[in-house]
Design goal:
single chain; alpha+beta; four-stranded antiparallel β-sheet; 4 strands
């Protein structure tokens, strides 16, 4: 299943309601499961982004749908990156 890195920045609303973060993380995990994906790992970050998640989804369209649903709740802005494993990258490079 394709893997993705989701980067999150809290909105003003997200910071004001920071104590709800554990519930929001649980909801994100449930959202992935409902879409046949998995939110594998969450990290809190220092720097440009506040948190990140390594996730799996069946395809890019599903990942885009999940990302829009998360952002639509108003607590975070998301940036989603498609991630390729080392083996996947080497295979891609081998076709050049």
């Amino acid at each position: 299943m394709p893997e993705y890195i989701m980067l999150f920045n809290f909105t003003t609303k997200g910071v004001q309601e920071i104590k709800d973060a554990p519930k929001r993380i649980a909801n994100v995990k449930k959202l992935f499961e409902q879409n046949k994906g998995k939110a594998k790992t969450f990290y809190g970050l220092l720097g440009q982004y506040d948190t990140m998640c390594i996730a799996e989804a069946p395809d890019d369209e599903t990942m885009a749908k999940i990302s829009l649903q998360i952002s639509g709740q108003g607590s975070v802005k998301t940036e989603t990156l498609r991630a390729f494993t080392e083996d996947q990258m080497l295979k891609l490079i081998g076709t050049i």
